[in-house]
Records
---
Amino acid sequence: MDYRFPKVDKETNFYIKLTEDLYKKTLFPHVEIDEINIDKLLLIAVKDNALYYVARKLLEYRSLDSITRKRLEAMVAKGDLELFKIKKTIEDIKKYINNYVIFKTYKGKNFPRIGNDIDVFVKYQDLYSLKDKFLANGYYLFVDFPKIEKAVLITKEGRKKIHLQSKIHWCWKEYLDEELIWQNPRYVTYNGHTIPINNVNADFLIHIAHMNYEHPYFKLSELLYLFSIVPALDFDILLAQTKKYKWQNTFLRTLNLMNNIHQILYGEPLTNKVNFKKIEFTRLSFPLMFSRKHMIKATLEKKITYYLLARMFKISRVLLTGETCSYTVPPERKYLTKDGKFLIRESAIRKAINLMRFRIFKLFDIFER
């Protein structure tokens, strides 16, 4: 394909080059560190959930001034503490749960991801007994989800939140078979622990569904991880699952977008197993939002209706501004400070609406059979 190179600011270019060890070298030109605005780069990184990774990489540059170096060292120190919490939390998961897979957490061996929580898939018949086991060992309920969610969010001092789930869904809709989620788990090393994660087909579907029906945007680290597992995918399984769960058009449009980004970054298509249509990008930045048209089509295809009423504030904001990552509170936002102030603040309106949403959803518990 003959592509016109999109506009990319120097900070995004630098960020893309910085992440080459997560996948492979790009076509993008080299940018010197003294050509960029460090604060702008760090803001990109925190919105893309890569602040710890970027801060560690930047500390390899000897030309940094002492003030910037101290700021970065403080960010890395805070990230190290979070990784220690993740390590201790995984120890608890391995101690208290026999049958589980961790999902949407691992993003490749070279990316030390720091998320808001650890997502753990368990059997529904085990869900509430596991909750009781964790509560008996010092954990407490962080969110009391309604029963329709089939999920529990727990935590304790010195640990990350654990999101126990027995149904993987967004907007109260499912996107793949439960049998596929459990099938042939892979064992990977994550933060010093060997953990079970989904097979590549389930992993890919879960990530693409989450991007479309929860964020809705691509993070670069997420994208590079998905690029890396594409050669191992069985597209017959993917297409059959997305057709069964009525989101195949959304899935194919997302693949098309990924293929175009891959072409821009590396000069070659991501895969030739599915037909793709060329997209002209005028500008490339991360996190990369889906277009408003794509989001509306995805919602209509999946027939998401009444759930939208509970997310009206977020949906309105996304459609009006075309931006959602600061609203969804990036996990590393508390580490991005300057002169003692947070550069990204959590929305008080968001907190209030989420609390009201959970209370409304609890009403559905009366219909539980």
Note: The CA atoms of residues 139 and 156 lie 5 Å apart.
---
Amino acid sequence: MNTANEVMMIHINDTVNPRTGGQYVYYVIKDELLKNGFKIIELSTPLLVKKFTGDGVGKLNVAKRLLAEIPVRAQCYLTSVIKYKTDRKLIITSSSPDFPVFGHITYHQPLAGLNTNFAKTPYVRLPQIFYDWLNLVSRSLWPLAERTILIHLSNSEFTKKYLEQKYGVKSTVIYPPVPLTKYRHTITGSREPLVVVAKPLYCAGITILPDIVKHIIRKAKVVIIGHPDRIGLQIIKLLKKYGVVHLGYVSESEKIRLLSKASIFLSLAHNEPFGILIVEAMAAGCIPIVHDSGGPQEYLPPELRYKNPQEAAEKILNHLYAGNQLRRELKELSRKFDENIFRKKIISVIKYLHRIMKA
């Protein structure tokens, strides 16, 4: 393999053990590049930070990770500038206002809670103060970095509109890859009156969960999955009196098992840019009930979207014992986000730009 097929990836995702939908996107991009014969030079902030800190846990390791962020981000930024100025290699990035590296392609997938009260946590801790400061410094460099990006890609029409209104950036929508092959089973039989909730985080709307649970707990069991933040932990403790169970981070196989037996998947996020897990629930035949905002408006019907906690509870109870026809329709609807569609589109864009870079 010669250097003519080399590309560079500079991003903020773990492509070795992806644990979020956003990280999985870059795992798929990397995998598709390798399948198409590209050699990859990669700078990944989680992997670089891990080199600084190892696998340790505890307060000391948290402090080490925070301190490592400064040289790691500086390394990514400076490397991107040098490579962009001196090399003809294509640079694929996750460049954004909070990670303003130079490059040629970036895929935008912002966090949930954009333009809502959930955008910023209500408590102050040292890590939060540190990241706020670091992001403030980073955003001052974004106008310069943004001008180097030739192709901006967005994960939804919602994200596309947000980028144009907020930053004047025009982008093309390529919906993210959803691993639908994990949910090949046929939808048959009855479902447990089980409601699965993911992402117990403030930015993902966890604070509205108690107002929903108190209306449904007599008829449904509620299970929460995922690592909580400080607010999420408080909510989980509060909900113990209702019998709500928190399973923490679950394996991929356990997640599939839960979605395949549960009746409802409840998304609490406001302005969720896309929602890969929502689409996974659809593929599993688990009916998603989501907030009426953000990317899910692009693929879920109004009867599955709520505007307030009371309406969310009503829609959960209305669909708790829904028949298989609706579940099959949602499974069919999920197919438009199949991972292979993303793979074909993203590699087509990369190859197009790669040819231009080589010319």
Note: The radius of gyration is 21 Å.
